[in-house]
Amino acid sequence: MRMTAMARVAMIGAVLLIVTLTGWAQEEPAVAPVDIANEGQALEQAAGEANFEQAFVHAQRILGAAGGTIEGRTPDELWYIGLAHQYLMGQAMDAAVAAGLAGERQKTAISIADRVLCPYEDVRVVSHGERINLSDYLVSGQTVIFDFSSQFCPPCMAIAPHLEHLAETRDDIVLVTVDINRPGVQGIDWGSPVAQQFGLRSIPHFKIYGPDGAMQAEGDRAYSMITQWLQAQG
């Protein structure tokens, strides 16, 4: 059947209307797929430099590329996918605390965020009177000194700068200062949950854990080891 002139005009008008409303279809430029291994290496580098904002960006890209499945992935890809989940979890926990998370959830969130976002700090202060799990602060391959201390203890305050210098100048030593005082308590807080947990009767009190995670020394023996390290520094 032949199309009349009026019908042709109507058809051309409809086509022009569609083009006007939608535009000519253009091919989208090809986007290279995300390479999980490359993004993972960039994540590790950013995290090692404490550039967590960039680390979170790489973590999001990795999980976006993974698409919710781990089937058929290489061991390295699985490692980076797990690492990405870990860093975004740390970010979420940190944000929850900043948003006002309270009570036991706050303590748990802080612990999780610390383990993810600052596991290799040379000097850390933890507890503030609350019970703690020392294993949460062990660092594989590092010697960890736990210094049970209080700001109201003159000997504690006297040795603290030397311990911090030791941890900052020795690549193999991490210092974790356990503040036994609860906020607002004046004087040494012998009744705090963490002081009761470890049966503290005098401070500073030291526990030293080796690179394998096993306790090497406590009390006087630990103090003797620390004294030798300090003397060796001159």
CATH class of the largest domain: Alpha Beta
- Report how far the terminal alpha carbons are from each other: 104 Å
Number of helices: 8
- How many strands in all? 5
Spell out the CATH superfamily of the largest domain: Glutaredoxin
Nutshell version of this structure?
With about 230 residues, this protein is of the alpha/beta class. It contains eight helices and five strands.
List strands and helices in order, with pairings.
Blueprint: H1 5-22, H2 36-48, H3 52-66, H4 75-98, H5 103-117, E1 123-126, E2 143-149, H6 154-169, E3 173-179, H7 193-197, E4 205-209, E5 215-218, H8 220-233
Parallel strand pairs: 1-3, 2-3
Antiparallel strand pairs: 2-4, 4-5
Structure report:
This protein is an alpha/beta fold and 234 residues long. The protein folds into two domains: 34-119, no CATH class; 121-234, Glutaredoxin (3-Layer(aba) Sandwich), CATH 3.40.30. Helix content is 51%, strand content 12%. It has a five-stranded mixed sheet, covered by helices on one side. Strand 2, helix 6 (154-169) and strand 3 form a beta-alpha-beta unit. Helix 2 (36-48) packs antiparallel against helix 3 (52-66), helix 3 (52-66) crosses helix 4 and helix 4 crosses helix 5. The longest helix is centred in the middle third of the chain and has 24 residues, at 75-98. The N and C termini lie far apart (104 Å). Mean pLDDT is 84; it is low at 15-21.
